[in-house]
Amino acid sequence: MNTPKYKRVMLKLSGEALAGKTGYGFDFEVVKRIASEIKELVEMGVQVGAVVGGGNIWRGRNGIGMDRTTADYMGMLATCINAMALQNILENMGVVTRVQTAIEMREIAEPFIRRKAIRHLEKGRVVIFAGGTGNPYFSTDTAAALRAAEICAEVILLAKKVDGVYDSDPNLNPNAKKFEKLTFQEVLEKNLKVMDSTATSLCKDNNIPIIVFGLDTPGNIKKAIFGEPVGTIVSN
Ligand code: GTP
């Protein structure tokens, strides 16, 4: 366990992950633990891009008759709040970060500029990509896949509440079977809920593997970076 397997990674954190057990808002102890794991990676020389979801603040339009685009834009704003929280906690730990937003809000953060993002990464700064893709009808998983392709990340680390990909929902089915390895084709054909199909196709077409793992177990991010078996790996 000496040299990291990956030099540049995209870490996708679900918004719910930041909420801890409460399911809403922030559990700052959880956010601090995630931040300290990110710090470890940076100290090992790994370049880290991060995309955060927004589900701990805004869960979308379900059941309230709101139109899709408005609900999606609200979700994008939620990801910006999360990005600022993560930035603040990382910087309090001495990790240099930059937030770049897909929708311009220059008073708050710099706008997404691909070449600038890459320079930040080269300088060892964690770049948090906020605001999804900037478009409705796309998930933050798709934003992670898109930004990963743009910054030439070698892998997407998909940190979830569940510790991998199962053949059925492990919360509902105690006999659900966890996959160690899957191909993107299998994920699409079996309609497995890893990422949505847009994000999955983007990773498939651009040959970016995804490691799906549970965030609740401390040390998983580091294990994934060193190529140790953790969760489920999805590749071509
Ligand atoms: P280099 O000097 O190129 O290595 O990068 P840098 O990010 O340190 O330089 P820059 O002068 O662009 O940024 C200095 C600080 O201002 C950083 O914290 C940036 O995140 C922030 N910053 C840069 N552009 C913007 C912007 O448009 N809006 C906001 N709010 N902050 C910005």
TrEMBL record:
Free-text activity regulation comment from the record: Allosterically activated by GTP. Inhibited by UTP.
Residues the entry annotates as binding UMP: G54, D72, T133, G134, N135, P136, Y137, F138, S139, T140
Listed pathway(s): Pyrimidine metabolism; CTP biosynthesis via de novo pathway; UDP from UMP (UMPK route): step 1/1
Lineage, broadest ranks: Bacteria, Bacillati, Bacillota, Clostridia, Eubacteriales
Record keywords: Allosteric enzyme, ATP-binding, Cytoplasm, Kinase, Nucleotide-binding, Pyrimidine biosynthesis, Transferase
SUPFAM superfamilies: Carbamate kinase-like
One CC-aspect GO term: cytoplasm
PANTHER family: URIDYLATE KINASE, URIDYLATE KINASE PUMPKIN, CHLOROPLASTIC
Protein name: Uridylate kinase
HAMAP family cross-referenced by the UniProt entry: PyrH_B
Segments of this protein annotated with the region Involved in allosteric activation by GTP: 20-25
Reactions that this protein is recorded to catalyse: UMP + ATP = UDP + ADP
Ranges for domain Aspartate/glutamate/uridylate kinase: 7-213
A Pfam short name: AA_kinase
UniProt-listed Enzyme Commission number(s): 2.7.4.22
GO molecular function: ATP binding; UMP kinase activity
